[in-house]
Amino acid sequence: MKRIILIAWMLLFSSIAAYSSDIKNNRELFLKLYQEEKLAYDLYGEFYERWSLGVFNKVQQREAKHVWCVERIMDNYGFDYNTNTIAGSYPDRDIQKIYDDLTVKGCISDLAALEAAAYIKEKHISQLRERIRYQEDEYVVKVIFLMESAAQSHLRAFVKSIRLSGSDYSPVFLTDDEFSRIMETDKTIAGE
């Protein structure tokens, strides 16, 4: 029993350490958020170009605002950052791999593109929920909360489109209950 408790504590500390090494301060947090928002913007633009589904265009327009907001926040904090305007190019290798993998998946069909879009939004919600747990700065908490609210709205839009196509989306990162609560929330992309 003691061994199981020791292993559980070691796993807990290693996951906290992994999170801490990933994002050590607000500058790193916002640089990561910037790349994630840009990834979403670029990905939905790619999907809209390929499949001409209005949901990709609408959400991409929202993502453009999110990228701009994160840039303004970094400006206000005085964080140095380089704006990378090349679509599909990211300094973070993990983000680059996600973009590359989802772009390939989204080329298969319009349904696969919608599933890839829902996947990235669900992943983003999960990441934001994890990140907010470690924040003490009220302003940063508010920003993350608003970003999660927008991500939920986008997830609902993509899942609605998936369902209209006669298919369904199963959550990967969120529990079934968390996912159901998000889907039941009565918000639309226009209300974001």
Helical content stands at over 70%
Shape: globular
How far apart are the first and last residues' alpha carbons, in Å?
A: 49 Å
Largest sheet: none
Percent of residues in β-strands: under 5%
What count of helical segments does DSSP give?
7
Radius of gyration: 17 Å
For the secondary structure, the number of strands is 0
What is the mean predicted local confidence, pLDDT? 86
The helix-strand sequence is: HHHHHHH
In terms of quaternary structure, what is this? single chain
Contiguous runs where pLDDT drops below 50 for at least 5 residues: 1-22, 188-192
Question: Helix- and strand-based class?
Answer: mainly alpha
Describe the structure.
There is one protein chain. This protein has about 190 residues and is an all-alpha fold. It contains 7 helices and no strands. The protein has helices at about 1-20, 25-50, 55-75, 95-105, 110-130, 140-165, 175-185. The chain is globular. It starts with a helix and ends in an 8-residue tail after the last helix. Mean pLDDT is about 85; it is low at about 1-20 and about 190.
What does this entry show, briefly?
The protein has 192 residues and is mainly alpha-helical.
Note the main attributes of this structure.
globular, disordered N terminus, 192 residues, 7 helices
